[in-house]
Amino acid sequence: MNIPQVLGYARIAGMPTVTGLYTVLFPLVAFALFGSSRHLVVAADSATAAIFSSALSEMEPVGSAAYIHLVSAVALLNAGFLLVARLCRLGFLADFLSRTVLVGFLAGVGVQVSMSMLYDMVGLDVGSHNTLAQFVGLVRAGSHMHLLTAGISCLACGLLLCGARFLPGRPVALVVVLGGLGLSWVLGLAQYGVTVLGPMQGGLPHFAVPVVSWHQFLALLPVSGSCVFVIIAQSAATSHAFAYRLHETVDANADIVGLCAANAAAGLSGTFTVNGSPTQTAMAVQAGGTSQKAQLVFAAVTLCVLLFFTGPLQYLPRCILGSVVFCVAVGMIDTAALNHIRQESPGEFRLALVTMATVVSIGVEQGIFIAIALSLFRHVRHSYRPHTMVLKPDTTTHELEAVPVRAGEQTAPGLVVYRFCADLFYANCSLFSEDIDLLLSSAPTPVRCMVVDCSAITDIDYSAASVVRDVLFRLHMQGVRVIFGRVASYALADMERHHIVAALGEGNIFAQLHQAMASAQHTVAQQPSTGALVTSP
């Protein structure tokens, strides 16, 4: 199933057809040996192929020996950049891909790939890489579809869907591919207008180190840089998406090592840049692959095809391949997961839909970066307006309970216990100041002491520290004592560095809240009071 697909990617790359097979030979073995993901298939990919082919086609004629030489040089240069990325431990970028955006990412890839496969399924040529443009073009050219090709595709899709429904785990797709190849060979479907893969050469690749001039090297740097960003992001998104789906873990930094080895193997074996492929990984998972042993078998089968079976492969109808990939792509749209997200978190559901729409309307690589940006924006949004609380006694149990900050809230006469539920940084420090001003100005009785519960504050940046010192100065001028309770060691280090400890004064920082409360009780008890204080639970 995957072999014909990489042959199609070779067309996008502007490379000889056989080089598509080379991408799933030594590069695949290299990743299986050095990578972490149990399922990621590293091979030819349309995103990276489109990036380098569009740039290199302006330097040398597509398909020429010089062009092929530059393509291999880009793959080798990618390996160098990936090695640097591993040394810099850039695998952390995968941590910014939430499960929500990964579900949306895979769904978007599924829509994008299924739309492009519809062209092969009805016998039309794709005129654009943009999914929306492909949809419009398909509608306009619908009357020109090849009916026999469309009929074969419908039959193949029917068999594949029935097999997935009634024969799960069985190699139905393999049977469909081999059956289509056999029928095309016997009946000569090509003479009836059905497009087939066509003849291709076989044999093993020739190993060589691509040498380029200094001028060419400088010209290839931005091309390789663009490819590497897509390789890291797309591979991480794909491996993590399937790891989440299958309840497994992956090491993103180890995967970068595997990708480095795979691209080095690609550059030395005369083929082009390889990347983690969502559709080919989905095929491997649906076929029952549970580890990289499956990819090693895939490489072994590719070796056999290169040596003995490139002749029969030329009869495979492209519509059969399109039908197989179409069904796999539709399966990548996890409607059950999207529905669960919608029920539990409508905001995150909208985030998943935006990610999916970006992948569909703009592209896979842009969709990944938009997904990371939206995930970070959502996190910053929560940190920007965190929950803030006042601890006050429950009317029934008289134990301290947290209630949202509102005008007039007070823990006890003369005392406010305030909790800020996030780290203090430049974007949210104004809320800290506003809350304290509100609580003091609206208190039913004058506040003599304020206790700040710092249990959620683990970091304070320079801007926030300046605001905190200003707040402390204002409160001291008003005669209000400020005490910080539940201060962790790392927060205390920040407070010392930013001179907050000096601004608070000696004896106003405690590691436990009950210690801070006891000190606050003593302060308030020295002032006229109209009510009793409560003790910390």
UniProtKB/TrEMBL annotation:
State if Transmembrane is listed as a keyword: yes
For this protein, the record's SUPFAM superfamilies field holds: SpoIIaa-like (SSF52091)
- On whether Transmembrane is a keyword of this UniProt record, the answer is yes
Keywords assigned by UniProt?
A: Membrane, Transmembrane, Transmembrane helix
Q: How does it sit in the membrane?
A: Multi-pass membrane protein
UniProt subcellular location:
Membrane
Q: Which stretches make up the STAS domain?
A: 405-520
Q: Which residues cross the membrane?
A: 12-34, 66-88, 100-119, 145-167, 174-194, 214-237, 296-314, 320-339, 351-377
List the protein's name: SulP family inorganic anion transporter
Query: Which species?
Result: Acetobacter lambici
Its ancestry begins with: Bacteria, Pseudomonadati, Pseudomonadota, Alphaproteobacteria, Acetobacterales
